[in-house]
What does this fold into?
Amino acid sequence: MDELSVLPPEGSWKRSARVRTSSLNPRYAYTNPSPSSTRAESPFRPNSLSSNTNGIQSDTPLILAPTPQRHLIESSASQRWLNTPPMSATSSRPSSPQAAFSQSSAYPTTRIRRRLSSNHTRSFSALLAAEKSEQVPVLPSLRGGLHRVSGRGLEPEETGGGRRWIRWMHKRGIKTWVVPGVIAGAALLKFAIGLGSYSGQNTPPMFGDYEAQRHWMELTIHLPMNQWYTYDLPYWGLDYPPLTAYISWLCGIVAHFINPSWVGLDNSRGIETPESKFFMRMTVIACDALVYVPALVMFAHTWQGSRSKRTQELSLLTLILQPALLLVDCGHFQYNSVMLGFTILALNFFAKGQDLIGAAFFVLSLGFKQMALYYAPAFGSYLLAKCLYLGPTKGGQLFVRLALVTASTFLLLFLPWLSTSASLSTIMQPVTRIFPFARGLFEDKVSNFWCASNVIFKWKTWASSASLVKTSTALTALGFLPAVAGLLRSGITHMTKSELRDEKDSEGKQHTPFLPLLPYALLTSSMSFFLFSFQVHEKTILLPLLPVTLLLSGAPIDSAAYSWGALVNNVAVFSMWPLLKRDGLGLQYIATLLLWNRVIGYSPFKLPVKSFVQLLSMGVYAAAILLHILESIVHPPARYPDLFPVLNVLISTPVFFLTWSWSIKCGMEVGWALGGLGNQSHSPPVLDAKEVEDVGGVTAQGTGVLIPPSNTTLSYRQAGGRTVSLGRAQSSGGSSSKATASTSPADLFEGSGSMGGGGEAD
Amino acid sequence: MDEDAAPSLRKSPSVASLRSVGSAGAPVPASAWLSWDILPSEWDILCLSTALKFLLFPAYRSTDFEVHRNWLAITHTLPISKWYYDTTSEWTLDYPPFFAYFEKLLSIPAFLIDPQIVDLNNLNYDAWSVIAYQRTTVILTELVLGAVLLKFIRGSIEPSIQRIVSASIFLHPGFLIVDHIHFQYNGFMYGILLWSILMARNGNKLASGILFAILLNFKHIYMYLAPAYFVYLLRAFCFSPTGHIHIKNFLSLANSVIAVFVVSLGPFALMGQIPQLLSRLFPFTRGLNHAYWAPNFWALVTAADRVLLKYAQMTGAEFAINESGVASSSRGLVGDTVFAVLPNVKPAHTFVITVVFQLVWLVKLWRNPTYKSFLTALTLSGWTSFLFGWHVHEKAVLLVLIPLRQVGSASRLLAAERQAYFRTFLLASVAGVFSLFPLIFNPTESIIKVVYSTIWIAAVYIPLSRRVYEYPKSVIYVIMDALEKVYLAGFPLLLLFVTAFRLFQQQPSVSGASTARGMCVATDPLNLSCTEVQHETNATAVSAMEFLPLMATSIYCAVGLVWSFLRLGFIYLHEETYQGQLTEIK
It folds into this structure.
């Protein structure tokens, strides 16, 4: 930093500054020994250096700055630092004087530049602070209409009720109450949704999911374990893995203590007293509070740990109010939040580098609901990639440990069936109950590939069930292959470099450099299961929704993750409309959607103007609203009683398809960014041409990337480092595009990554 | 608006009060009512509350729901001459004519949506259509309240405080419990009341008077507030500050108010139905206490009577025990309350006590007819009637809570003064809201009411408490402060006790018929029909202690409400000399 202060002002300092600042890089890397950042840096340094020495002329002064741990899809450091855009709409924090200065440098007037040069020491620290807080950069999505920064008058123009509220709480000096407030408010909302009806209310003889869950409580407390999976199977026989059974058993004990008639064996079937309903609703909310809510809080601290406090709180708020999960769990009645909570916990521990705990949690998730298998390819390949990355010895150790932990957790879960009887059939009881392959390609109307294409190809008449199972399995595997390949490739790429690292770094306690790939991989994998696999329910969309919402939470409002995440969330709720309508949850559907979109400040009109995602969103919402209106005034013709559900499927499926493609695209982008192109010998993951075409429309969008902080940044923040949260990375207007255009070799990486720098998006 | 222009002039309370005499001078031009300019945060609050209210559609409804449905049917099917004579349902029309007109208006879309809603003989109709329709009308009419509260912010001296106050009124748990769960149209009514108050603040006293007259013709419970209005308008509008009467103002006010009443009662007067109408509106057949004792002074007296009776029975002390009183009043049955030990209370007694207390505030108001003084006197006036009135309903506590909420932001208060108001408000709000809890007794709704009220209290208390903190100066203050804190801390314990009692009690009753059931009584005086807890005829196993939680709630809340009433009264009477912390108590 001292070096900077002796720079000559204006004019002549430009070039020397480059030389000098570029010399800062190694030094900074030394003081900030975050393996991921230094490693991530390395491939580009030659590029930027060459650009400096080549002396490509540029109107904007370039300061090559240290870039601690940050996503390199980001525009080059120079451009970013000098052309810091005005505070983005996503940042709710009042700017410090320093930040204000760094902001003003966005305007390429000479006067300001002079100020920059005379104040550069001060600005440097400000920039550093800004940089620190800006761990999760996003590609500039650069549409002129996005600078909604103007009205900072009486009430600053924040986007989204959640942001406004959090900002207000912070300004009032009561920020410690934000998280309790969020949790209490969400609890209130869950209770209120619970007032509504549930799946199968008043529909004897079979009732619905509510009765299934209640029935399991009844049978687990009254029967010995070896009958759990065999007792009266036609009437809601237990077909979830053992952890569900155990939790049902615990709830059943409490219910039996309060009122035995709620869970009397056989004679309580279909019991629907207000008190028993209240009890059942309470069990859902209690499980939610014990698993899901803590997992979300922890997620905000680990995955969003490098972000400002407000962004963390906002991401918690976004996640906790996710309408689809609220409707299915508290309205329709299920315990999905437990499975999803365990999955998030697994993610959190992976981010902390505690892979063994993470793996155990994922097994718990699997042991609660077999649906968590949708995530298995992503988690599995991530762990495998980590083993590869750590090298033969350490990786091998980790592999063995992981195998042991996973197997022993499974064993623990299935222990009663293993010990009570040795016969294979008893052991297989749960397994055959859990995986019903005999139930057909799809039930009901679900927005996946099979159901949507069934409108044209009548699959069931066209092919045998067995061959369909095979086809669907193959398609599913093909669907998640890019994610698996991407992770493994990253593991291998980084392995070669990891040999260079000294021993301290490779303790395995750090998260791996390719961790940011994981959410995308989860999305790709679960979405491909949803789209292509066998026996999918409409509620299963909750699984792909989880990674999407994780990516969305805390993403800047103009990022692609935000626009896609909100779109998919809304469409997912819409795709469950036939189910919700049957359950009598129409009001809850409206209320939760309204509330959530208001909280995150989402509106399709505010998306990047005329971008692909905006046009898509507009089209989809228009179609959805039209469908709702039609449904309310027109009765379906007798020939097509399922007309509206089918139309619903036809609207929703394309969105899910595009999301899947988008996740693959983002996975590739992030993978490239992490691995770099310069020293790569092998080609990127295979993707057929059609998909690339699909993706083409969205390449100009920014990508929100979650990167958990390394220990260094954490400690910096813990030490009270004043940071400025600049929620975005937009190049501002003309100056940025000029910079991009004129420094093309310097920004070689951007161009080659086809990653939509300023110029491309125009 | 105009107050914003010169806020810095006001440094002392006297200047403030002087200033607020002419409070804000010119009336707001009519065009200002058309320009809304709603801020995003205000949309947020609207969205949040609307979403929550939507979710409450399937919640428990009291028989007030059927009452209002029946009124829709009456006003839709019958000619106006039969409205106040119809007895098809037991829930006869017993609100003033404007409310009947209002129901007539609502019945038109209702007929289009589902003709069965307005079928007079279709008693206890509870299809989804009628639930959705009636609940929606509550939400929509409550927008009047929202609009008025917005206008309060726009012209406020301190918008940041008024914003919190406005938001907290709009989201008041009282409205949530009574309107959106229990079912009534209080949001709408209080919207009109606050509109009238807003007019008084803006200096448009004539409009204020007219609006209040209209409100009275919607729901006559607001008569509790009428004395304060009468005195304020007379003094501040019809008399000049020097004591000369403004004939022109007086006549315009009188004529306007009379015109409102003519529009309302005129048709019935022409048909000669006024006596019948009045007999519907004021059925003087009820006892001192309502079934669930409203948390007022008489609840304390009744409790004292019970205690004395127990004492007499245990020690054999020679009290003249009224035998009929021994069996009375602990059972919660509707009927006359007869005291066992204490002398019985007649309506005349309550009337005299109420009038005496009212006079104190009114004299003060006459001397100091400022807006802030008016608001406080209004609150105290309603409070007096609530505490000492005959057969008061617990829901009437809103009459206290809503204006009281507004008092704190009435004008630029001194920090010390604000602290005192704030503490008073906190005590009264906690006690008042808690006293509404027994209205809702289903488990799910109970959780919602408790969680919501807790969030609300926290959201009101936490942001404001920092602003109004005052360092204690005297020993008495410290003791008082500690006692008040202890009192507030007692509420969670009380809640715990009530809940545990219910859980404990529920177990034996599961097998048989449920023992307690919400019932509503139609012909309540002042028309706050409400939830009763009545015995089923065959419920022999019910213990005598069944109403213990209700009694405990009532008494505990009554303590807080009486105390905060005294507090507010004290602050009001010492307004000019008040230096904070009630030091004059010494």
